[in-house]
Amino acid sequence: MGRSVSCCGITCSGKEERLLDARVSQKNIGAIYDRIAPVYDILGKLTESRARSRAIELADIKDGQHVLEAAVGTGLAFYEIVKRNPHGTNIGIDLSQGMLEKARERLSKLSGAHYALDKGSIFHLNVEDESIDILVNNYMFDLLLFEEMGKVLKEFKRVLKRGGKLVLVNMTEGERFGSGIYDFIYRISPATMGGCRGVALAERLQAQSFRVETREYYQQMLFPSEVILAYK
Ligand SMILES: C[S@@+](CC[C@H](N)C(=O)[O-])C[C@H]1O[C@@H](n2cnc3c(N)ncnc32)[C@H](O)[C@@H]1O
C-alpha cells in the first residue's frame, strides 16, 4: 500500500547527499534499453505496477486533453492513457527503438486509438511551448545525473500549459525493511538495474516553482517508488 505524505511534511533536506548519483551515462542508455526491451515488462509489472496505476489515477485524464508521456518505454502506462483519451492528443516519446517497438505492439491492440509514438529525447521535446495539459514521466529521473535533472524539469515546464499537471514516478530511497537491496545491486552492477537508483524529486520540483500537491511512497516486492503530483 502507498503512504501519502503532504509535501510540506517531506523531510528531504540533505537527502541527495545520501543518495547515489547516476553511474550509467545517457550515451549508453538507449543500447541498454534496446537489450532489456523483450523482458522489461516482467519486472516492470512485478515491482512497479501499483505505483504506475496510482500515477494514472492521479493524472485523472479527461477525454480530449493534450497528454505527453516522456520516456514511454514499452507503453505500460501509455496504453492506459490512450484508452482514457480517445479524442485527445496522446504523444509518447522514448530514445530506445526497442522499447518503442514494444509500445507500438501493445498499442496496436487498442482499436480506434489516437496517438503518436516517436523516438525523441526528454532533453529536447519536439512539442510546442505551453501545449500540454498533463505530462506523465515514469522511472526516468532515476537514470539521470543530479546535474541533468534541472534541465529536464525546465523542458517539462516549457511544454506544460499554465496550471498543467506533472505526474512523476521514480525509484526512490527505501523507507521500509529490505528496500535497500535494489540500491545495493546498483552499487555492484548499475546496468543490472537498468541504470535506475533511488532518487527524490519533490524538493527539486519546488525549486523549479512547481507546486507539489502530493508525494506518496509505494513498495512492491521490496522495490521503493515515489509517486508525485505537481502543477506548473
Ligand atoms: C526504466 S524505463 C521506464 C519506462 C516506462 N516509463 C515505464 O514506466 O515502464 C526508462 C526509460 O527511459 C528511457 N529514456 C532514458 N533516457 C531518455 C532520454 N534522454 N530521452 C528519452 N527517453 C529516455 C529509456 O529508453 C527507457 O525506456
Automatic annotation (TrEMBL):
CDD domains listed in its UniProt record: AdoMet_MTases
Tell me which UniProt keywords the record has, alphabetically.
Answer: Ubiquinone
* An example molecular function term from Gene Ontology annotations: methyltransferase activity
The protein in question is named: Ubiquinone biosynthesis protein UbiE
Q: Where is the Methyltransferase domain?
A: 61-172
Q: Which domain of life is it from?
A: Bacteria
